[in-house]
Amino acid sequence: MRTIDIQPEQSLADVARLADLSVEELRKISGLDATSDTKPVGTAMRLVFVDAFDKGGATTKEGPSGAIGGKSSFASAGPLLRARAEKSLAATASKPPTRVAPASVLPNDTAGPDTRLGRQLEFLLRIDSLKTVYRHNIVGDHSRRENAAEHAWHLGAMVGLLFEYAPPGTDRGRAAEMALIHDIIEVEAGDAPAYDKKAVKGQGARELKAADHIFAMLPQDQAAQTRSLWDEFEAGKTPTAKFVRALDRLQPVLMHTITNGDAWKEQQVKKSQLLKRVAEIEHNVPSLWPLVSDLVNTGVARGQLVDG
Length: 308
Known about the structure:
Blueprint: E1 2-6, H1 12-19, H2 23-30, E2 45-50, E3 62-63, E4 66-67, E5 80-84, H3 87-94, H4 108-111, H5 116-126, E6 134-138, E7 145-147, H6 148-161, H7 172-181, H8 186-189, H9 197-200, H10 203-214, H11 220-235, H12 239-258, H13 262-267, H14 271-277, H15 279-284, H16 289-301
Antiparallel strand pairs: 1-2, 2-5, 3-4, 6-7
Helix pairs in contact: 1-2, 6-7, 6-12, 7-11, 7-12, 11-12, 12-16
């Protein structure tokens, strides 16, 4: 027997991949019924795989309040699936946690809202929300979407390990710090999938507004330093910014490649769209371009990208 915990932010397509089922099989067995294969399921459940002959070879479905489906005649080669909702998970999904203002829980004497440490901690606790901003990328085990905090961590690791490919004049320490903060504004602006025209519209203005607010939470000197770092990344003019931006384009390509291009397929991404998206790598870190070119062509050959 094995189990899979479904989180509210996962889509039917995400869960089906993890369960090795088609979306329609998953709908029939589990009772999940999102309007779109790519829309978050909005609830938390635990899927339990049992042997085909367990429970008389039948599949049962249980919801938060007990059995709702009973016996099923669904037939499948290999393991059958029984789904039930764990009450603790379901409660978490039905009522999102309330964010507590740092000023209300931090000790006023040592970290009050008017102290330097208090403002630093308020900023650090605010950007914790980056863990709940989900991107279009799928994580390597196909279990869910990648969140923005994970992306920033991964990018920071890439800066260190791939620094030998950086253009002359790149500042290693500054590049690492830039990688960590480059998407911080998404705690307020959210993430806009690159190939979603509707989501991308107005994203630049939303990010500028978020930057004005979020960086100002810091003490004045650190606010200026951190905002300057973010502005440098956005402008993409310095060797450091060019390097980090190139890796920021490379990281999703790597993730799409190891997840069978499933997220690309969802949006029917064309080869020409991806080449336009990653052009900065060819221009600014040409030593990595042969790799990127191979990955793009491989994606087309495997049917992950539309050849157009």
